[in-house]
Amino acid sequence: MRPNNRPAHQTRPINITRHYTRYAEGSVLVEFGETKVLCNATVEESVPRFLKGQQQGWITAEYGMLPRATHSRSQREAAKGKQSGRTMEIQRLIARSLRAVVDLTALGERTITLDCDVIQADGGTRTAAITGACVALHDALSKLVADGVLKQHPMKALVAAISVGIVAGEAVCDLEYVEDSNAETDMNVVMLEDGRLVEVQGTAEGEPFSHTELLTLLDLAKQGIQQLISAQRQALNLA
Amino acid sequence: MRPNNRPAHQTRPINITRHYTRYAEGSVLVEFGETKVLCNATVEESVPRFLKGQQQGWITAEYGMLPRATHSRSQREAAKGKQSGRTMEIQRLIARSLRAVVDLTALGERTITLDCDVIQADGGTRTAAITGACVALHDALSKLVADGVLKQHPMKALVAAISVGIVAGEAVCDLEYVEDSNAETDMNVVMLEDGRLVEVQGTAEGEPFSHTELLTLLDLAKQGIQQLISAQRQALNLA
Amino acid sequence: MRPNNRPAHQTRPINITRHYTRYAEGSVLVEFGETKVLCNATVEESVPRFLKGQQQGWITAEYGMLPRATHSRSQREAAKGKQSGRTMEIQRLIARSLRAVVDLTALGERTITLDCDVIQADGGTRTAAITGACVALHDALSKLVADGVLKQHPMKALVAAISVGIVAGEAVCDLEYVEDSNAETDMNVVMLEDGRLVEVQGTAEGEPFSHTELLTLLDLAKQGIQQLISAQRQALNLA
Amino acid sequence: MRPNNRPAHQTRPINITRHYTRYAEGSVLVEFGETKVLCNATVEESVPRFLKGQQQGWITAEYGMLPRATHSRSQREAAKGKQSGRTMEIQRLIARSLRAVVDLTALGERTITLDCDVIQADGGTRTAAITGACVALHDALSKLVADGVLKQHPMKALVAAISVGIVAGEAVCDLEYVEDSNAETDMNVVMLEDGRLVEVQGTAEGEPFSHTELLTLLDLAKQGIQQLISAQRQALNLA
Amino acid sequence: MRPNNRPAHQTRPINITRHYTRYAEGSVLVEFGETKVLCNATVEESVPRFLKGQQQGWITAEYGMLPRATHSRSQREAAKGKQSGRTMEIQRLIARSLRAVVDLTALGERTITLDCDVIQADGGTRTAAITGACVALHDALSKLVADGVLKQHPMKALVAAISVGIVAGEAVCDLEYVEDSNAETDMNVVMLEDGRLVEVQGTAEGEPFSHTELLTLLDLAKQGIQQLISAQRQALNLA
Amino acid sequence: MRPNNRPAHQTRPINITRHYTRYAEGSVLVEFGETKVLCNATVEESVPRFLKGQQQGWITAEYGMLPRATHSRSQREAAKGKQSGRTMEIQRLIARSLRAVVDLTALGERTITLDCDVIQADGGTRTAAITGACVALHDALSKLVADGVLKQHPMKALVAAISVGIVAGEAVCDLEYVEDSNAETDMNVVMLEDGRLVEVQGTAEGEPFSHTELLTLLDLAKQGIQQLISAQRQALNLA
After folding, report:
1. Which of this chain's residues are annotated to bind phosphate (chains A, B, C, D, E, F) (predicted)?
2. Chain A residue with minimal CA distance to B78?
3. Do the Cβ atoms of E44 and C73 come within 8 Å?
């Protein structure tokens, strides 16, 4: 049995709170059960050097975890003087996932940075971050439209992410920490509402996994993504 | 006139929320108006090397600000690879202030780290951090007593901190950002309930200040501290 | 058409040269066409701190690219003072892939480090690195057996990796640089000979990809892996 | 009794040697007893980026301590690869103190950097540094006037700094190391000749201090500052 | 006796392989016996800031050693986050040696970087690097001439480097690792074909060395350099 | 003509002041004309890890230059976060030079660190540093003997260093900055009183130099070293 008797295909309770802080152009607190990530979107009127003069914008992301977001305290990356490989991997994933749903040419020569900071961690922080950052980004882009800076909204589709995995031989959706740390296979899936894939990252933590297991996990992910995008739509008051 | 017609001696609305996150031994969200700081206390069963074998404990602190806590985004210190001088100055101040009210011998050979992370900044983040961290530390110590690890509570008194300053020629208490950035003199005061001082840091940003102005500011600080300690007592359900 | 009229399912010429340098316990130069990676395996009689006393070994990896392995020179990471996110991501992937095929308990309390240094890069450096490192690791483990340190060889299976992707609308196997930089979808697959998966990482660089496309790519990867494992077997003189 | 029977209100012997090195625009060795700090002022014809085009100058400071300035050797910050929090705190204090007495608009778009390097440390290095740097800065500004670069001297007043504290229950002025390391309360005061304050930093190292004690310390500081400014005037041949 | 009965004045077998990698403007694998260094020359159309507008070019060098080039693994400098003093010393020496034989004005405002990466180390890596880099640089310059970018070849002479030393009381040429680590005196000599010196670096590892010993070593070096420059000429098909 | 009509073979005025600071076990200010270097020797009762248990001591050195030791200000290495290649090269040279004259076995398991900090620089800082550090080291060792820690003085000979070079076609001794920056050839020689060599580092800055020129420079160096060692003897009151 999963904790709280949660069915295998069921996500944890999802909460998306917009306008969580005052100053960012988009600010979302996303909760996947006890996992809580604050996603702030900042618009800046410039692009990185490699894009100068190319008449397109850029989406980037940074990820951090408060030292005591977890059961035991981890060292502050600012104090260590460098970001871990895990942090860099995650922030690259968030940025790629969001760029996949934005028309960068329509954005014009500006950069939107998504700061995803984990307030509390109970597994699935990267998938929550992508899911919340999508809403924060949507708000920041809507503001550019409302302010007359952009003529049309450059977001092409909503995107969400979910972790799926095999725990004690069973395929389950949206793993919490106690499941994640015991999973034999762990897979993060970034998907659009129409089921098309932006990113698939599956890892055998124990035994390698079969083609059939992969298909089962993808199917579970698809179900979870539907629940997440539905929560995003509701938060954004989209039809 | 101050923003919102606030009287010169009045603090902003103070909110102290305990148990804000789940895992830390003490976890407090402190709000001074729009300034919001999360203060997490972590207990570890060891002391820094310079205290090994001396049969006393240690209190330390780290301070951070989320990149978009402020009106414009600041670079993430973890990405820059080092903490700024301002950050180091503040975290040293927080730690000194808290050590002043704890009987380190009664704490035994353990370390309590206070992580103070600014979620939203509107002036006075360091004074809010000290005021909130005192409550988080109290909770962490109470837990050690409740768990039977300590016989008596090692906190000797509550401590709080307030900023006072001279803005447009007038002495005011608990400056918000728009005041702080225009202050001629800026002073942070860390004080006990009985009016004794733990730390005084006064800085002339424009003209030097007179002895008389210093006394006026100290008096304002004393009034503000009463309000803060009263809020701490209420949050902690102390008489 | 692909460069050199290469069929979609065909890998580039694969060369695996063992004993490429003199001092490492395993030393392999692996070539996927013009991509050349030197994989050196080092055995050390200790384990990282988090494994001390747990009676198991560890496999780790480091990845680097000579500054002029590519068409234009990139800055040396040692001179910059830090490894890029891409480098860290790759070396974590190499290490996870190899740990999946080694019985770490049978290895005993020792660490094997795989240094994968790219001499020349024409796409697919991480997949070549995994494929070559597997052979270098096999040699290092065989030496431990031959020296009487280990009773049985702790490698459970051969593992190889291939990149597959969609280029100009067509699914192709083992992308070279000119293909990789124009791919709409890019997927790295780490697989055992029996088709079970160790790692799948698929990324939409342009349009999201469909479930069907994913299946096509996985099938292509499987064919490529067969060719790679066959080359590994031949190099190792295994039946 | 204090070391050498020094009365409570008395500073150590103060020596200020101008033109200590040849190349700097201002170069002063300041001695507070056995504490010796070399203060070099450098004029550069540019301002930091945040001041570009604002038709004003800037004063900044850096602080360092030779590894064997103290009783036991401390690690060289250049070798450690970063400056400590203490170093940053001190150099920020020195710079603020000097900016308070210079008309930055009259200085024009140029930067003066004060390098304060401790040759020998016996307590009070930051107060000696401020006191000596004021003289070095005065010399550098005088040179700009003498060279016809500036029409009038931009220094508005002399500034000096002194440490005061409570040691063994007694308030004393200009603490040397053996006193400083045993002080219950420690306060650094930066003051003009007319008694107005630029900076006050008081810290309870042991018990908190009372309002009355604060006043006693400020009074002692005022007496010490008179002695220091008198020494500055003499060194500068000012009336 | 030396290893392999090598006579005192004899270098190890020298091999110089041009066009070792595909993309660099000059790419040479140089072998001094078991020491193998890959030297890649990169041409860039800019100069460092301190040379901007001075109508001359620049030659620079970087040196690295693969972690397992040696008998035991050394830590990767990119992972440590800094280059060692030894690395910096060597790359500065390589660059100075090559600048001595190039007419920097004839090169025009461009920079050539020599990346010297040690694939396998058995003593004399810095002398092999200089000797190989000279050939790689010659090729890169020839390409600039062939492409019509330069009218005449800016290399004024070939340069090579050799290590000589006193081992077990005997002066020997081109020390391999086992000799180098036991040498009483160790000297690296960078010389032109006509015997003129570019650099001499002699170090007493044990006893100081006499003037006479210095002369003997210089004479041995001269003989070794003849063999090296002859190998360079042959590789470059120069008369 | 040289500055101040100094003859080619003549060093600048040499001053060696012992006991320059109070706390170091050896403390020497050495002056070669306007070049002034403070050399402090610190004794510590431990050895680096690679020497643990080998019953011998170690001599190491660190070098730094105050930011305004020179005509224009250079950036502080502690602020940059790393030491330059030049700094590392020099401190390695100082340490090697001193180790050559100490019986490390007689020193026992302790480390002596020589901190050489340049107060003012007018050429020849590394040679002045070696010359002064030798005296500071002698004092530190004498103190160990006087304190009864060592039975006999472990210094086997005095060592000094001088720069020689070819300036405007003429060989000269002890170059000052204006000569050094125009030298065609520059050579640093570390020598014992008996003329035996510890280190020779000759570099062609412009044209390569001939064997004959090398001999002329060595002869000049020998004369300079006599003057330096005579000054060391006088400072140490040795016969």
Report:
1. 86, 124-126
2. A78
3. yes
D115 touches D25 (CB < 8 A)? no
| pLDDT of the residue at D239 | 76
Compute the distance between CA of residue D83 and CA of residue D89 in angstroms, rounded to an integer. 10
Q: Is the pLDDT of residue B103 over 90?
A: yes
Q: Tell whether ipTM is more than 0.90.
A: yes
pLDDT in tens, B193-229: 999 999 999 999 888 999 999 999 999 999 999 999 9
Sheet holding C14-18, edge to edge: C14-18, C26-32, C35-44, C111-120, C58-65
Confidence of residue C161 (pLDDT cuts 50, 70, 90): very high
Distance from CA of C209 to the nearest CA of A (A): 5
| Residue entry with tokens 């998938």 | A127
F6 in a labelled binding site: no
What does the pLDDT look like over E139-154, one tens digit per residue? 999 999 999 999 999 9
Query: For residue E22, what is the nearest residue in chain C, using CA coordinates?
Result: C120
| CA D46/CA D54 separation, integer angstroms | 12
The answer to whether B91 and B63 are in contact (CB under 8 A) is yes
Q: At E195, phi and psi to the nearest 5?
A: 90, -5
- In terms of pTM, does the model score above 0.90? yes
B91's tokens? 């975290």
> E strand or H helix at E185, and its extent?
strand E185-192
Q: Report the percentage of chain F scoring pLDDT > 70.
A: 100
Give the model's pLDDT for residue F1: 83
* Contact between F120 and D64 using a beta-carbon 8 Å cutoff: no
pLDDT of residue D205: 85
What strand order describes the sheet that includes D111-120?
Answer: D14-18, D26-32, D35-44, D111-120, D58-65
Instruction: Using an 8 Å CB-CB cutoff, list chain D residues near B92.
Output: 85-86, 89
From the list F88, F198, F202, the residue facing E200 with the nearest CB is F202
C89 contact A CB<8A: yes
| Cα dihedral E49/E50/E53/E55 (nearest 10) | -120
For E61, the 3-state DSSP assignment is strand
In eight-state DSSP terms, residue D86 is: H
Feature table: binding site of B for phosphate: 86, 124-126
Annotate E9-22 with b (16+ C-beta within 10 A) or e (fewer): bbbbebebebebbe
Could you give the percent of chain A with pLDDT greater than 90?
A: 97
Going from N- to C-terminal start, the domains of chain B cover 7-236
Task: Answer for the pair D8, D170: CB distance below 8 angstroms, yes or no.
Answer: yes
Q: What is the model's pLDDT at position E205?
A: 85
Q: How far apart are CA E80 and CA E74, in angstroms?
A: 11
The highest-level CATH class for domain E7-236 is: alpha beta
Which chains pack against B, by 3+ Cβ pairs within 8 A? A, D
Q: Is E50 on the interface with C (CB under 8 A)?
A: no
C207 neighbourhood in chain A, CB within 8 Å: 196
Residues 6+ positions from A215 with CB-CB distance below 8 Å: none
Nearest C-alpha neighbor of F83 from the set F58, F95, F65, F97:
F65
The upper half-sphere exposure of residue E184, i.e. CA atoms within 13 Å in the direction of its Cβ, equals 15
Q: What is the pLDDT of residue B239?
A: 76
In eight-state DSSP terms, residue D198 is: E
Which helix (H) or strand (E) is D181 found in, with range? none
| Annotated binding residues of A for phosphate | 86, 124-126
Candidate from C92, C200, C203 with C-beta closest to A85: C92
Task: Say if CB B82 and CB A81 are below 8 A apart.
Answer: yes
Buried b (16+ CB within 10 A) or exposed e, D182-214: ebbbbbbbbbbbeebbbbbbbbbbeebbeeebb
Query: Shortest Cα distance from D200 to chain B (angstroms)?
Result: 5
Token pair listed for A123 = 């597994």
Six-digit token pair at F94? 């100082």
User: Chain B contacts of D191, Cβ < 8 Å?
Assistant: 208
